[in-house]
What does this fold into?
Amino acid sequence: MVKIRPMLEWEYAPSLGHTIDLAIASAEDRLNWMRQAQSDYEIALPLHELQGFARAEGYYRGCPKQIRIEQLKHLARLTEQLYPVLRICLFDARKIYSTPITIFGPLRAVIYLGQKYLVFRVPDRIQALSQHFDGLIRAAEIGTRDLPAIIDALLQELDATAD
It folds into this structure.
C-alpha cells in the first residue's frame, strides 16, 4: 500500500497474467482506505530491507535508480502525512527475525510464504502472532518520527552514486 505504481510495475514485471494490474489496484485501494482513517496501520520492517532497496541490492538488483528515489520520497511523504494512522518502524533483523506477517485485529492473521499465504483464524494463534509483532515493535531501533531522516540519508547516498 505504500508502493508507487512504477515500483509495483518493476516488481511484478516477471509475473504472468494480470498480476501487475491486480497488485496496483489492491495497493491503491488499501492506501485510499488508510487515507480515510478507517483503520490504523503499523508496519515493522527490517532496516537492511530499506537499505538494500535504496542500494539496489539483492532482490532489488536492477531496480532503476529513479524508481528507488521516487519510492523513497513517496514513503517519506506518506509517513509524514499519515502519521499517526500509519506508523512504520525499523528493526535490526540480526537481533530479531520475522517472516512477513499481517495482523487483522483479533480475527485474522496472515503469514506470507512467497507465492502463498497461510491464514490463521484461531484466537490463540492470532494472539501468538500478535505478540511476535509486538516484539518487533518493541525491538525497533527506529520509529516513525525518525524514518524521514533515515530516508533522507539514503537519498543523499543515492545522489552520490552514479546511475
Notes: The longest strand covers residues 41-46. The CA atoms of residues 98 and 140 lie 12 Å apart.
